[in-house]
Design brief:
single chain, 601 residues, mainly beta, Cytochrome Bc1 Complex, Chain D, domain 2, 5-stranded antiparallel sheet, 4-stranded antiparallel sheet, 8 helices, 11% helix, binds heme C
Length: 601
């Protein structure tokens, strides 16, 4: 009987020392209401605890929990994943998935380094694949990203090796001919940007704001650096390099953080950072908006800050002849709007100084809070016409240079780089919208520019929370379309509308938001319906069509299927075509596969 008080005391003492971890506290306030009671459609806490830490983070960043987790900071997401998830990473690849002779290179020649085969960002592969070969393309191998629901890593191909990241943050070096794994490297966050090969180094950023240099042969880390101190910073665009300096575009997901009425919106500033390839030291960092100041309170009583935004989502375009770099910018997040949002901006390669700015949509301040008229929606309230795609620099037959840029507004612009970006012509290729217009990228063979549009129509289903978190669906008929414009004057040579989805295919939309890729005589465009199609450059007729929304047997033994195609488009080199399939965001069809096609058996 005398023991009891001691036990009680011991318990009291223990609870004094062992205050709940931050992760446990977040779980209690943000997750437990759904995951603790046993509900048929909610995985219970015990099921979540079977997942690895990266799998939980993936779900919070990209999976079914993305909307719920949007208002959590990076640290909070990591804390709750630490608390719930199994320690360590995902299971290592199966031994049978590894290349048996790591040093052996394939016979495959041809390259695609970073966002485009050239630093002019044309996404035009001039060698290695003809129209006839395109019509004979067959699946050679498939590779699965274990446990992922989205496949969005943009590949780089060099010396027969394919380098690409994944939603889990694993970067792979694969044998391009067989898909066997040479090595893997695990980054801090998901890796969507194409790794850029410079000498023996691979340079890329992740979605948590870290930039890495790793040894391309071995996958060993050389150096890493967080290129922006803002907690919402993320790196989505590929880098470009020149003369030992690498240029890194910086954007953020602060628009999503603004969903929380108590969040002090907004303080992130888009920037371009120049780092020395040798050690990652900073040469310059050029911000695209002035520093924010405190401007009062929002209607929920949280601080308001501005200006902010103008993130750079895509790879910079090099113009060594003029000593310039071109970047395209996103919207502002808070008032006051600035002249640098939704713009094409030319910066001096050496100093980072802004040489000229061509804004195509003024007064565009927006956050995700505008979707439900939250306190952090600025008075401008959109239209959210970011540039998500890189500018393309082409030389015309008569020796002029033209800079092409496609916007979420559904407009394509041609600018004159010789005259401070003066607009030469503009052409409408789609309706435009928050998720509309040109999203990831156009391609150009010099004569025509090929612009595919999303114009996805999202529909919100009434939620019966807590058991129904999938409240977003997509319209099966509206959206998509591919237009070929003449580079010299913007004349519309042809237009092919999006392909309506069959009935009863949930998550299917005709949207063509993925980046397009061109070869001599053809252009490839993936759609949210899961199809990758090749169109004739001459008239837009379909030359080849492959439905990726199916289950595949993979070379690495991972269960994998394709789904909606979005994000970086096909990469073509050495007569092969590589493309990802599966996109769980925006109501799309999830998937986790990388497909490699070849015209040779
Ligand atoms: C409004 C209710 C609700 C809240 C709040 C909620 N969840 Fe969920 N969660 C669900 C439902 C429902 C599913 C299953 C979704 C499906 O697959 O259809 C789910 C699925 C998941 C999964 C995926 C499980 C798997 O097998 O892949 C993870 C991980 C997860 N939740 C983590 C969290 C965390 C961490 C939090 C707190 C930050 C959280 N959830 C908050 C309802 C909720």
């Amino acid at each position: 009987m005398f023991k009891e008080p001691i036990v009680v005391l011991l318990f009291a003492a223990l609870s004094l020392v062992a205050a709940p971890t931050p992760g446990a506290a977040i779980y209690q306030t943000r997750c437990a209401s759904c995951h603790d009671p046993l509900h048929p459609r909610v995985p219970p806490r015990a099921a979540l605890q079977k997942l690895s830490r990266p799998q939980i983070l993936r779900s919070l960043y990209f999976g079914v929990m993305a909307n719920i987790a949007r208002t959590l900071t990076t640290q909070e997401k990591e804390a709750v994943a630490d608390f719930l998830g199994r320690p360590g990473g995902d299971a290592p690849p199966l031994p049978s998935a590894m290349c048996t002779s790591p040093a052996a290179l394939t016979k495959l020649t041809g390259s695609w380094n970073g966002w485009s085969p050239t630093t002019t960002n044309t996404r035009y592969q001039s060698v290695g694949l003809s129209i006839t070969q395109t019509q004979n393309l067959k699946l050679k191998w498939a590779f699965g990203f274990d446990g992922d629901v989205t496949a969005f890593g943009s590949p780089t191909l060099l010396d027969g090796r394919l380098y690409l990241g994944s939603a889990a943050g694993v970067v792979y070096a694969l044998n391009a001919e067989t898909g066997c794994i040479h090595w893997t490297f695990t980054a801090n966050g998901p890796v969507r940007a194409a790794p850029l090969a410079v000498g023996q180094s691979l340079l890329f950023g992740d979605q948590s704001g870290w930039f890495y240099s790793i040894n391309a042969k071995s996958g060993q880390l050389r150096w890493k650096r967080r290129v922006d101190q803002h907690e919402a910073a993320r790196l989505t665009g590929a880098a470009v390099a020149k003369d030992g300096v690498v240029f890194v575009p910086v954007t953020s997901w602060e628009e999503g953080l603004a969903l929380n009425p108590q969040y002090a919106c907004c303080t992130f500033r888009g920037s371009l950072v120049a780092l020395r390839v040798s050690d990652g030291s900073v040469v310059w960092k050029s911000y695209l908006v002035p520093p924010p100041t405190k401007l009062g309170l929002n209607s929920a009583g949280a601080d308001r800050h501005g200006p902010s935004g103008a993130g750079i989502w895509s790879a910079p375009t090099l113009d060594p002849k003029r000593g310039l770099l071109y970047v395209t910018t996103g919207d502002n997040y808070s008032s006051p709007p600035t002249s640098s949002s939704d713009a094409i901006v030319a910066l001096n390669l050496k100093s980072g100084q802004v040489v000229w700015t061509r804004q195509t949509t003024a007064n565009d301040a927006y956050t995700s809070a505008c979707g439900n008229k939250g306190p952090n929606c600025p008075i401008e309230n959109g239209p959210d016409f970011d540039y998500g795609a890189s500018a393309i620099l082409v030389a015309t037959a008569d020796g002029r240079d033209i800079l092409l840029a496609g916007q979420k507004s559904g407009l394509v612009y041609a600018l004159d780089p010789a005259r401070n970006g003066e607009i030469l012509w503009e052409a409408r290729v789609g309706k435009g919208g928050v998720l509309g217009g040109v999203q990831w990228g156009m391609a150009s063979d010099g004569q025509q520019v090929y612009a595919a549009v999303s114009d996805v129509l999202r529909k919100t289903r009434a939620s019966t929370a807590p058991d129904d978190v999938k409240t977003v669906t997509v319209d099966a008929i509206q959206g998509g379309g591919l237009t070929a414009l003449r580079v010299i004057d913007g004349k519309k040579n042809w237009h092919v509308p999006g392909v309506p989805c069959p009935a009863n295919k949930p998550g299917c939309s005709p949207a063509q938001s993925a980046a397009v890729t061109a070869i001599p005589g053809a252009v490839f465009s993936g759609a949210f319906d899961g199809h990758l199609r090749a169109f004739a450059a001459e008239n837009g007729s379909v030359l080849w069509d492959f439905d990726t929304a199916q289950t595949f047997k993979t070379v690495n033994g991972v269960t994998a299927k394709g789904g909606s195609m979005d994000g970086p488009g096909p990469v073509i080199a050495g007569g092969m075509l590589f493309v990802n399939s599966g996109y769980s965001r925006f109501g799309g069809m999830p998937g986790n596969v990388l497909l490699a096609f070849s015209s040779e058996p």
